[in-house]
Amino acid sequence: MTTPLAARPGFLDGLDEGLRDSLRRSIRDLWSHHSTALEGNSLTLGDTQFVLSEGLTVSGKPLKDHNEVHGHARAIELIYAMLDKDALAEDDLFLLHKAIITERVVDIYKPIGAWKAEANYTNFVSRAGKPGLREYPAPQATPRLMRQWFDKCNSAKPSTRDEVCRNYAELHILLVSIHPFFDGNGRMARLVANIPVLKAGYPPIVVPTEDRQRYLETISAYQESIANLAGLKDLVDLPAPETFTALCADYWSETMQLVETARQMRNGNGVPPAPTFPLPRS
Ligand SMILES: Nc1ncnc2c1ncn2[C@@H]1O[C@H](COP(=O)(O)OP(=O)(O)O)[C@@H](O)[C@H]1O
Ligand SMILES: [Mg+2]
Questions:
Q1: pTM of the predicted model, to two decimals?
Q2: Which residues contact 134 (CB under 8 A, 6 or more apart)?
Q3: What residue spans define the domains of the chain?
Q4: CA 95, CA 100: separation in Å to the nearest integer?
Q5: Mutational pocket test of ligand 1: of 124, 170, 215, 219, the residue with most ligand atoms within 8 Å of the beta carbon
Q6: pLDDT at 104
Q7: What distance in angstroms lies between residue 181's CA and the mean position of ligand 2's atoms?
Q8: Which atom of ligand 1 is nearest the CA belonging to 182?
Q9: Closest CA to ligand 1's atom 25
């Protein structure tokens, strides 16, 4: 089954139907591929495009990987449908979590569509080159920390390119630093931090899987700078993620380029070039 295309994000405004459909599919394929590949999915961009457009499978590749890209593509459609809402709430994130976690293991310690039920950890190598174990904030602190995350998400109304990028980077790094789910935190962060980006009329920021090492090292260095991450109770007083914000600005170039290309094609018959971002909302 192919994923249906429903609600329409603003970066498609001003394009005719054929171009809109192609651009929308390109962005869906790119976003779904990179975000799942960053977490180990073996489908290439070409495989992902084939699987999502044709509803067929790639010979010899795991069923789990096919389900994951379908789940991610479905989550993108859910996000587009959420763009008209004034505020994002817990249930919206839970719905997205249910879409992306496609391995259905019945385990009370692995809740799907709910906050984590037990402590979670990652291993890392410190800036000084030493191995370490990192504990994320406690499950008991998660609802409070996420309420603060929602306040940030719902109160910021970024509009310039710089403001939007800064807001994306902050929402993304805070979500992966809270690590509110037992799994899926990376994919969730790369989805939901894009909601204000899309609301402002821009295409999503897509972290390329080729930059995985730098992406993880930058997030890890930020988390290392938080004195007591496991005991975190408040998001106030956390440092601004300057290095990560600069990276995110680079990560935006591929989808921006796709949109520019579509606009130039629209103007292919001697019509003057389209204005640059953001397009006025119709
Ligand atoms: N060593 C690390 N230091 C900091 N952040 C990390 C580290 N390893 C992974 N992450 C963050 O956590 C995400 C992976 O978390 P996880 O819950 O497994 O999400 P997913 O299932 O989407 O992979 C990564 O994408 C990254 O954002
Ligand atoms: Mg994972």
A1: 0.94
A2: 121, 122, 123, 124, 220, 223, 229
A3: 10-266
A4: 9
A5: 219
A6: 82
A7: 10
A8: 17
A9: 186
Residue 42, φ and ψ in degrees, nearest 5? -90, -5
Which of the ligands is closest to the CA of residue 211? 1
| Per CATH, domain 10-266 is 1.10.3290.10 | yes
Ligand 1 centroid – CA 26 distance (Å): 25
| Cα 7 to ligand 2 centre (Å) | 28
The rounded Cα 23 to chain-centroid distance in angstroms is: 18
Going by their DSSP bridges, the two strands 131-135 and 121-125 should be labelled as antiparallel
Cβ contacts of 90 within 8 Å, gap of 6 or more? 146, 150
Binned average pLDDT, 10 residues per bin, the chain of 282 residues: 62 94 97 98 98 97 98 98 96 98 89 97 92 97 98 95 98 98 98 97 98 97 96 95 98 97 80 57 41
The answer to whether residues 109 and 100 touch, using CB atoms and an 8 Å cutoff, is no
- What residues flank ligand 1, with Cβ below 6 Å? 38-39, 122, 124, 176, 183-187, 189, 216, 219-220, 223
Closest Cα to atom 4 of ligand 1: 220
Q: For the chain, where are the alpha helices, taking DSSP H only?
A: 17-37, 45-54, 63-82, 90-100, 142-155, 161-178, 185-192, 195-199, 212-224, 242-251, 253-266
- Going 249 to 255 to 258 to 259, the CA torsion angle's sign is negative
- Whose tokens are 């994306």? That residue is 168
